[in-house]
Amino acid sequence: MQAVPQNWYLLLSTFMFCIGVMGVLLRRNAIIILMCIELMLNAVNLLLVSFSSYAGNAEGQVFVFFIMVVAAAEVAVGLALLVSIYRNVASTDIDILSKMKW
Question: Which residue numbers in the chain have pLDDT < 50?
């Protein structure tokens, strides 16, 4: 028997995901946008672990491990790109970066 009902995990995961979506849609700083994407990935991870423990198997937890590995690689590449862009433009504002297309 779980100490915390599964509905609380679902609510927390939904709340975290909504904060991440709003951050991606409303913020203009590239670093903040990357952090909000990570928040959305962690919300999905929480949901997978919750369903995995509810079902009584560890398949969801293994899947979460792979998601965390891919997310860490994504952050490393994203931050490396941002550092390179910041050295050239001296800003991480998305509106300024959209002018670099051509």
Answer: none
40 Cα distance to chain centroid: 4
- Per-residue model confidence as pLDDT tens digits over 61-80: 888 888 889 888 988 998 89
Q: Return the CATH number of 6-91, one of 3.40.50.2020, 3.30.300.130, 1.10.8.100, 1.10.287.3510.
A: 1.10.287.3510
Query: Which residues have CB under 8 Å from 40's CB, separation 6+?
Result: 16, 17, 20, 21, 24
